[in-house]
Design brief:
- By secondary structure, the chain is an alpha+beta fold.
- It has helices spanning 42-45, 56-64, 83-89, 93-96, 101-104, 109-122, 168-196, 200-215, 245-248, 260-263, 327-376, 379-395, 402-430, 443-453, 475-491, 549-559; strands at residues 6-8, 14-15, 68-73, 78-81, 126-132, 141-151, 157-166, 219-224, 235-240, 269-271, 298-305, 311-319, 434-435, 439-442, 461-464, 470-473, 499-506, 510-517, 564-568, 574-581, 590-591.
- A 7-stranded antiparallel sheet has the order 2-1-5-6-7-3-4, sandwiched between helices. A 5-stranded antiparallel sheet has the order 9-8-12-11-10. A 5-stranded mixed sheet has the order 15-17-18-20-19.
- Strand 5 and strand 6 form a beta hairpin.
- Helix 7 (168-196) packs antiparallel against helix 8, helix 8 runs antiparallel to helix 11 (327-376) and helix 15 (475-491) runs antiparallel to helix 16 (549-559).
- The longest helix is centred in the middle third of the chain and has 50 residues, at 327-376.
- It is elongated, with a radius of gyration of 46 Å.
- The two termini are 73 Å apart.
């Protein structure tokens, strides 16, 4: 066995150990006195093998320590060792003495012999990890071995002392920690991808890749739950671990006994050997895996179920070895499948929303075309009717009765009303959709401009409260809202001294504006009705109006993320409220 790394005697740096046969067997060349490889005198060479009273204390220490201790001579024979080292090797203590390392530990002898010869050659102590099997263990274990030169009085190296510590559990703990760290990294990365990705194909591929890696599968696949008329077809959506061509030559899996629990969303299936399961091979025509299919022994399948309870599809994993998929792997994949189901639901909703947005854009374009036709092609005949009525009245000036002339005037007023209605429909269709770049708007100055556009009757008073804000807003829509609300307050006052009060209140991210009048008021049962298109509370012959103004107000305000409402009692005036953002985002110009 080859050691994984080594350290100098100081423990400050690591170095690779030359494999056996690369300079490790060369005989030491002559060197000055004191060199580590100098051969000791014959009597000192035998000192390693001869017991003495001076060794009693050392022997007591040897046997008391739990670390494996031993001494090997220049012929690589074991001279001394303690019971702990004998237990590590799984060989009786007495059976070690006089035997070489290749005889005792054949599976690890190459690495250990290379280490021993290095010390004998250089006389420098170092530490190395050794991994392998001894007679005491069927499974590989790891040891940290310190090699130190045993010297004579004149500094000649006559052997090597070893200190052996079993670090198997430490290594396993390190491996588990590293595995957990890698798992957390994969889960964290995948979680971020699932949260951010709305492309369904990329999302499913990310889940399949992550689950294949975490489960230890040779390959993984996601089959989308799409069935034909006979309920037998499942579409391959993604593949991970192997090229897609490995599956393209085969028909889609059917609802066989093995696949059914997954495609039906019944349960997770984890098998150490799928070929030994009672459900395997029961279905024609293959009675198992088709010829040329990747070999599968270990099998894991997890259904992916949406929030509504429908089965979106299934994650399937295979490996040619037996018993690969653990309970831990199953739990990881089940967790990923749950996250994937939520992300896939979101991706489906996003895709549906994109389709609806596209359909809405098409509808808006059609509405714009209709509005264009209405504003041009319908207005022209109306103007012709108005002109004809005037000409008829002029031709019949001496013959027409007062009643006939009144009917002609009424006809022209209806034409004017219809023209206003068409123009109102056009404004309503475009309200909240025609967008301009937000600009700095001083609301007080905007209100002054609104009043200049209105015909304020004699005797009317309009009060604008102090403290009006400056907003980052589209000017025209805000102007339209105030123009309709203040205009309505004057139009429907039904008294010689109409009074209108305009106020604003800071709500943080929003401003609340109100337009209060002293008119006839609105009964509570009509508070919602007034916002509906074409709805008026007064007969049109009494007060000319289209019933579109407040509908336009509400549509504009809602498009800005605000709301509009009225507070009023019959006979006590009315106050119309609306909210408007302090700062509007720039979404670009054009029709939305």
């Amino acid at each position: 066995m080859e050691n994984t790394h080594s350290k100098s005697g100081s423990g400050e740096h690591a170095e690779r150990v030359s494999p056996p046969g690369e300079g490790a067997t060369a005989e030491p060349a002559p060197a000055p006195r004191g060199a580590a490889w100098a051969a000791p005198p014959e009597q000192e060479r035998h000192a390693l093998h001869e017991p003495s009273a001076d060794c009693a204390l050392i022997d007591a220490f040897f046997q008391a320590t739990t670390a494996g201790l031993g001494v090997i001579d220049r012929e690589l024979r074991v001279v001394r060792l303690n019971q702990a080292l004998a237990d590590i090797n799984g060989i009786p203590l007495e059976a070690h003495l006089g035997r070489t390392i290749p005889e005792l530990l054949p599976e690890m002898s190459d690495a250990i012999v290379a280490h021993l010869r290095r010390v004998l050659l250089t006389g420098v102590a170092f530490t190395a990890e050794v991994t392998g099997r001894t007679r005491a263990s069927d499974l590989p274990r790891s040891w940290l071995v310190n090699y130190a030169p045993v010297r004579t009085k004149d500094e000649g190296v006559i052997g090597v002392g070893v200190v052996v510590l079993d670090i198997t559990e430490r290594k396993r703990t390190e491996d588990r920690l590293q595995e957990e760290g890698e798992t957390l990294e994969v889960l964290n990365l995948t979680g971020k991808q699932l949260a951010a990705e709305l492309d369904l194909e990329k999302l499913v591929q990310a889940v399949t890749d992550a689950a294949t890696r975490l489960s230890g599968a040779q390959f993984g696949a996601f089959f989308y739950n799409v069935t034909n008329a006979e309920g037998k077809s499942y579409m391959l959506y993604t593949i991970s671990g192997v090229p897609r061509e490995h599956f393209s030559a085969f028909p889609m899996p059917r609802n066989t006994d093995v696949f059914a629990p997954t495609f039906n969303g019944e349960s997770v299936v984890r098998l150490d050997d799928v070929t030994q399961d009672g459900r395997y091979g029961n279905n024609a025509p293959y009675h198992g895996m088709p010829k040329g299919h990747l070999p599968v022994v270990s099998y894991l399948a997890v259904p992916v179920v949406s929030r509504s309870g429908s089965v979106i599809g299934g994650l399937f994993f295979g490996h040619p070895a037996r018993g690969v998929f653990t309970e831990r792997a199953e739990k990881l994949v089940v967790g990923l499948a749950a996250q994937a189901a939520i992300a896939m639901d979101n991706a489906h909703l996003f895709r549906r929303a994109q389709q609806l947005i596209q359909a809405l854009e098409r509808s808006n374009k059609e509405l714009d075309r209709f509005a264009y036709v209405a504003s041009h092609d319908l207005k022209a005949p109306l103007r012709a009717i108005a002109n004809l009525s005037q000409w008829i009245e002029d031709d019949l000036m001496d013959k027409a009765s007062p009643e006939t002339r009144q009917h002609m005037v009424l006809l022209r007023s209806r034409v004017v009303r219809l023209e206003a209605l068409i123009e109102g429909i056009l404004r309503y269709s475009r309200a909240g959709r025609v967008r301009d770049k937000p600009e700095s708007v001083e609301v007080r100055k905007l209100l002054d401009d609104v009043l200049a556009l209105l015909t304020v009757p004699e005797g009317a008073s309009i009060e604008i409260a102090a403290g009006m804000p400056t907003l980052l807003a589209e000017r025209v829509p805000l102007e339209q809202v105030f123009l309709n609300l203040i205009g309505n307050a004057l139009k429907y006052a039904d008294r010689p001294d109409p009074r209108v009060e305009v106020r604003g209140r800071d709500l943080g991210e929003l401003w609340e504006f109100s337009v209060k009048d002293n008119g006839p008021g609105i009964a509570p049962q009509y508070h919602q009705k007034v916002w509906e298109i074409f709805q008026t509370l007064n007969p049109r012959d009494n007060v000319e109006g289209t019933g579109i103004g407040l509908s336009i107000v509400q549509k504009i305000v809602l498009s800005k993320g605000g709301r509009a409402w009225v507070e009023s009692e019959k006979g006590a005036g009315a106050t119309f409220f609306f909210t408007w953002p302090r700062s509007e985002p720039d979404v670009g110009g054009g029709v939305r």
